Amino acid sequence: MLGGLLIIAAGSLFVAAGFNLFLVPHQLLSGGISGISMIIGYLTGWNIGFLLLLSNVPIMIWGLWAIGRKFVVLSTVSVILTSWFLQFIPAFRFIQDPILTAVAGGVMIGIGTGISMRAGGSTGGFDVVGSILTRDRDFPLGTLLFGLNGLVILALGYFKRDWDLALGSMLSIYMTGKVIDTIHTRHLKVTVFIITKQKQLLLDRLLLIQRGVTAIQSEGAYTQQQQDMLMTVTTRYELAELKSIVRRTDPHAFVNIVETVGVMGRFRRDKTK
After folding, report:
1. In contact, 198 and 163? CB cutoff 8 Å
2. pTM for the full predicted model
3. Cα separations (Å) of 117 from 184, 186, 271?
4. What was the pLDDT predicted at 272?
C-alpha cells in the first residue's frame, strides 16, 4: 500500500506540473473534470486546485459504489495531492510555442495519469468515469477519455471565443490519451494457468478479483501425483494483484502466463465455472 501511495504521489506531481508549467500559462485545458475546473478558473479567477478538489467529490462517491474502496482511496489521495501541488508549483510561461506546450503538457499529464492507474488508482474526474465504463468492456481507456473530453473542448471554444485554444487543448488531450494507453494496459488480456495443491484456498481468494476461474484436475507426469490446474483470463492491469495472491497463498504453485488475443462470453466472474 505504501508503494502504491508513493507512485500516486509521483503521478500527482507530474499532473500538477503539466498543469502549471504548460497548460495554465497558455490557458489551455486538460480533459474532463480538471478541464471544467480550468474553464471556471479562467473565467472567474477562482483557485483551480480548489475547484478540482470540490468537483471530484460526487465522482469519488460514484466510484466508491461502482468500483471499490482501494481504487477510490488512492484516487482521492491523488486528487488531494494534485490540488496541493498546484498551490506550490508556479504557473509561468517558459515555453512560448503553443503547440510545443500542448504536446509537452499532454505527455506529462498522461505519464502522471498512467502511472497512477498502474498503481491501482486514478487522477480523478473522467479517469474514474472511464474506469467504470471500461470495467466490463474491451477498448482502450485513453481513447474513451479523448471522446468524453470533446464536450469540454467545445465549451472552451464557446466561452473563450478562441478556437486556437480549443484546438491546442484537443492536441494536449490527445497526447494524454495516447500516453495513458501506452502505460495503462487494462484492456490487454492474459490467460493464467496455475498448477497448485491449494485449490480451494486459491479459488476463494482469486474469485475476489471478480474473474471467472476454471478448475481442471491434472496429474504430474513425473511425480504421478494428483493436483489441480486453475485457469483464468484477466487483464494486465489486474495481473500484479493475481500474482501477489498466488505468492501469498501457494508459494510453490507453478504459474504460466500467456498473451490472450481475444475473449468471448462473460469476462466477469461466472459462478457456474
Report:
1. no
2. 0.70
3. 6, 9, 28
4. 34
Compute the distance between CA of residue 161 and CA of residue 268 in angstroms, rounded to an integer.
Answer: 46
Q: Per the structure block, which three cell numbers stand in for 10? A: 509521483
Which strand ranges, in their side-by-side order, compose the sheet holding 189-196?
213-219, 226-235, 189-196, 254-260
Alpha helix locations (H) across the chain? 2-18, 32-44, 48-55, 57-66, 69-86, 98-118, 126-133, 141-148, 150-160, 163-183, 199-206, 236-249
Pairing of strands 226-235, 213-219: antiparallel
DSSP class of 209: G
Other beta carbons less than 10 A from residue 74's beta carbon: 22
Could you tell me the residue ranges of all domains in the chain? 2-183, 189-260
Model confidence pLDDT, tens digit, residues 25-60:
998 988 778 888 998 998 899 999 999 999 998 888
Question: Please, are residues 241 and 199 in contact by the beta-carbon 8 Å criterion?
Answer: no
Could you tell me the pLDDT band of residue 186, with boundaries at 50, 70 and 90? Answer: low
CB 14, CB 109: distance < 8 Å = yes
233 strand-pairing partners: 191
**102: nearest Cα among 189, 2, 176, 187:** 176
The architecture CATH gives domain 189-260: 2-Layer Sandwich (3.30)
